[in-house]
Amino acid sequence: MGESLNKGEMIMTVIKGLEGVVATTSSVSSIIDDTLTYVGYEIDDLAENASFEEVVYLLWHRQLPNAAQLTELKTQLSEHADVPAGILTYLQTTNLTTSHPMSVLRTAVSMLALYDEDAEVMDEKSNYLKAVKLQAKISTLVAAYARIRKGLTPVAPDKELGYAANFLYMLNDRKPNEIEIEAFDKALVLHADHELNASTFTARVCVATLSDVYSGITAAIGALKGPLHGGANENVMKMLMEIGEVEHVDAYIQNALNNKVKIMGFGHRVYRNGDPRAKHLKAMSEQLGIISGERKWYDMSVKIEEIVTSSKDLPPNVDFYSASMYHCLGIEHDLFTPIFAVSRTSGWLAHILEQYENNRLIRPRADYTGPTGQKYVAIEDRA
Ligand SMILES: CC(=O)SCCNC(=O)CCNC(=O)[C@H](O)C(C)(C)COP(=O)(O)OP(=O)(O)OC[C@H]1O[C@@H](n2cnc3c(N)ncnc32)[C@H](O)[C@@H]1OP(=O)(O)O
Ligand SMILES: O=C([O-])CC(=O)C(=O)O
C-alpha cells in the first residue's frame, strides 16, 4: 500500500490513488461489505421501489419525503426546469461538432451561474435553492444540447411530467411509454450517489475552499468525464460496436486481455465481489433488448462478462450494462455520460451541502521527489 517517510516533524505516508484512505465522514451514502446504501436504505430496495425524485429528497434531507414533501420537491423541480435563453442561444451559435458532450455540459453548467444573481450567496437557504435549480436545469440542458447539435429546436420541459419522463420527452419530442419511463427512472436512481467516488471527492475539494455550488458541480462534471470513471459507459458501447457480433466476442476480449488492455465497465476500486447496481442494469438491458429487437447487445455483454469474470475475476461495474440498456432506449452513445451526470448531480449536491455544513479546507500533502538545491542559471548560460 503506502510507504512511510519521515520528513522533519511530519510522518508522510504515500498511498497511491488514495486507496483505502478515509477522507471525510458522510451520512449520504455508504459502501460496506459490497453493500451500497443511500442514507441506510439498500440500493436494491430503492431501485425496486423509489422514484428518482424520492431519492433526490432522501439524499438532500437524509430522510424519505412524505407525500406533501415529495409534491413540493417535484413542483420546485418543474418550476426551475427552464434554462436561460442566453445559454440556448450560445449553444445554437457555437460550433459543437468538435467538442465532447461532457465538455459542452461542463461549460453550460458553469454558465448557469452567470444567470443566477444568488450564485455567490453563501447561506443554507440559498445553497439549497441552487441545488434545486441545478438539478432541475441539468436535464433540460442535456436534452436541449442533444437536439441543437442536430439542428433541431429544443423541446420545452413539460411541467406535468416527472423527472425521468420529462428528460426523455425533451430529448425525443415524444411522450415516453411506461416501460421507458420506469427503466430510465431506475437508472437515475442507481446512478444517484456513490460515497466518495472521484467526481464527488472533486466536488467536495472544490467547495471546501468555500467556492460556490456551481463551481463544485462544474468541477465534478470534469472528473466524471474520464474513461476510468463515468466516461466508461460510452466506451463500453464503443467496444460493443467494434465487436459487432456475439461470435466475435471471444477473440476480441482474449486479445484485449492478452495485451493488457483494460475492458471498459469492469473492475472497481471499492467493490471486490461485484457492483450491486450491475444486476439491475443487466435485467433492464435484457428487457429493453427484447422489446427493441436489439437483444444482441445484451447477449454480447453477457458473453464478455463470462470471459472477463472467469479469466480475470473482474466483475462488471455500473457502467457495463447501462451502455446496452441506454442504447436500447434509443439514446445516442455520447450522451451516456452526460446522463450519468444528470443523475449524479443529486449526489454531488448532497455532498456539497454536507461539506458546507461542517467545512474544513481539504489540502493533503505531496511527497516531493524532484531535484533539490538547484541554483538559478541565467537564460543565456543554459544548454
Ligand atoms: C462509475 C465508475 O466510475 S465505475 C468504474 C468505471 N471505469 C471502468 O470501467 C474502467 C475500467 N476499469 C478500471 O480502469 C479499473 O478497474 C478502475 C479504474 C475502475 C479501478 O482502478 P484501480 O482500483 O486503480 O485498479 P487498477 O487499475 O490498479 O487495477 C488492478 C489490476 O486489475 C486490472 N484491471 C482493473 N480493471 C481492469 C479492467 N477493466 N480490465 C482489465 N484489467 C483490469 C489492472 O490492469 C490491474 O492489474 P495488474 O495488477 O496486473 O496491473
Ligand atoms: O465509486 C467509484 O469509485 C465509482 C463508481 O462506481 C461511481 O461513482 O458510481
UniProtKB/TrEMBL annotation:
Keywords: Acyltransferase, Transferase, Tricarboxylic acid cycle. Pfam families: Citrate_synt (PF00285). Pathway: Carbohydrate metabolism; tricarboxylic acid cycle. It catalyses: oxaloacetate + acetyl-CoA + H2O = citrate + CoA + H(+). One of its GO terms (molecular function) is citrate synthase activity. InterPro entries: 2-MeCitrate/Citrate_synth_II, Citrate_synth-like_lrg_a-sub, Citrate_synth-like_sm_a-sub, Citrate_synthase, Citrate_synthase_AS, Citrate_synthase_bac-typ, Citrate_synthase_sf. Belongs to the citrate synthase family. This is Citrate synthase. The gene is citZ.
